[in-house]
Design brief:
Length: 452
């Protein structure tokens, strides 16, 4: 029997220095899914890799063997040289997997409570698994329901209306560190979703400060400029990506958000571009893997923050935060009930259909035996009783044989109890009847056991 599992790493127990080594770039997800699909015990697979987590959702034929194979996958995929052979430290099974994904899609498991970008990341993970043909019926339905849950939380709760982003948290951290940003020289490196949100938020305030936007691909910057932007006169984009160190050295604040797999700002190059005055510089790197060399934070006058430093930039009022979570959790558990109902239907519907087919086959067999006789001519009550008894005996034959062949008492008790529940029988069965009736019941059971 297949089981639903998830395992991986996330910000709850793994720092960014390790988490970034397990990040699977979007360009590599399809290849990684193909590798997972070749594992013997992995029947379905999806990968959710964000700045806060790298998690593999899977349907496995054997839980322990499946987990071992996924551990081996992580070991082969990681780029770790200084931490040894690390393994995923986060594992869940069955309904806990669904509950976790619903909370993730709703922003309840994000470092920044209610962070909105996770919805698009869950959607991308689902789409990638569908395109790679590694998402079967179970994961397809799970991700669809998770996305519906996330949409409900955002549209029906106060938390959804007050959702924040990693970009807004980064700017709040900058304000806490260096004050008002309106008059500052700010460089944003990258032109992805988080970088674009950051630029829009910076331009929403009027002021004399300049916002510089640079990206390796100018095409993406030009596409972004087609949007209607407030205070666009504050935005400058006319420079080369190779000038990033010089631009960063002359800025008051630098926000870095790209999908690059290496450092874009290096200590020695930045230091050589810094002025002798060593004016204060704040750098916030929200990329995972990190794009700013960590030792840059040791340069005089430089304050360097990364994604994990945003953890404290959340809703200030704890009581209000708990109230927001409670609203969203209600929707999450409603969705979990819906998922449980769907899972039960997967088991029950085919079983009922199979039972109906089997009983119908028995009926058809008995009807075939009487086809030589015109049914309208059957008037003798004994003939009718004989036909009905033959049908009953055949229906009860297999379960009776199986019950009498079971040697394990506990299994036998469970089987007997299941039959009593399904057929609404007296819990005491024949044991609660008078001796004469019990003997008749036992004799009937023996008859059923020998007749076909």
């Amino acid at each position: 029997m297949t089981q639903l599992v998830v395992c991986g790493l996330n910000y709850h127990s793994t720092p960014i220095a390790i988490r970034e080594r397990f990040t699977i770039p979007q360009s590599c997800v399809s290849h990684a899914l193909l590798a997972l699909s070749h594992l013997p015990h992995v029947k379905e697979a999806a990968i959710l890799s964000t700045c806060n987590r790298t998690e593999i959702y899977a349907v496995v034929s054997n839980v322990q063997a499946g987990w071992q194979e996924i551990d081996a996958f992580f070991a082969s995929a990681q780029a770790i040289s200084d931490h040894g052979a690390l393994k995923p430290n986060f594992r869940l099974l069955r309904e806990d997997v669904a509950l976790h994904l619903f909370r993730v899609a709703s922003g309840l498991d994000s470092m920044i409570l209610g962070e909105g970008q996770i919805m698009s990341q869950v959607k991308a993970a689902h789409q990638a698994a569908l395109e790679a043909k590694t998402a079967g019926p179970m994961l397809d339905y799970l991700f669809k329901v998770a996305l519906q849950c996330g949409k409900r939380v955002r549209s029906e709760t106060t938390m959804g209306r007050r959702a924040v982003s990693v970009s807004s948290a980064a700017l709040e951290l900058a304000r806490n560190t260096m004050g008002d940003l309106k008059e500052k020289r700010i460089a944003v490196i990258g032109a992805g979703k988080m970088a674009q949100i950051c630029v829009k938020l910076l331009l929403s305030d009027s002021g004399k400060g300049t916002v510089f936007l640079l990206n390796r691909s100018k095409e993406r910057v030009n596409q972004f400029l087609k949007n209607t932007l407030p205070n666009v006169q504050r935005l400058e984009t006319d420079f080369e990506f190779e000038d990033r160190h010089k631009l960063a050295a002359g800025a008051d604040l630098v926000v870095v958000s790209t999908s690059a797999q290496s450092f874009l700002l290096e200590r020695e190059v930045l230091a050589s571009n810094r002025s002798k005055e060593q004016k204060p510089l704040c750098i916030i790197d929200i990329s995972v893997p990190r794009n700013v060399e960590p030792t840059i934070g040791n340069l005089p006058g430089v304050k360097l923050f990364h994604a994990d430093d945003l953890a404290d930039v959340v809703t200030k009022n704890l009581a209000e935060r708990e109230a927001l979570v409670a609203e969203a959790e209600d929707i999450v558990f409603e969705t979990l009930d819906e998922f449980h109902g769907w899972q039960r239907s997967l088991l029950v519907v085919p079983t009922i259909a199979g039972l109906r087919e089997k009983i119908e086959a028995i009926r058809q067999e008995q009807m075939a035996k009487t086809r030589s006789t015109n049914l309208s001519d059957i008037t003798d009550p004994m003939q009718i009783e004989e036909i009905s008894r033959a049908i009953v005996n055949q229906i009860l034959h297999c379960p009776t044989v199986q019950l009498k062949a079971t040697r394990d008492y506990e299994i036998l008790r469970q089987q007997a109890e299941a039959l009593r529940t399904l057929f609404n029988l007296d819990p005491l069965g024949a044991l609660g009847k008078p001796a004469k009736t019990r003997r008749a019941a036992v004799a009937g059971a023996d008859t059923v056991c020998t007749e076909k």
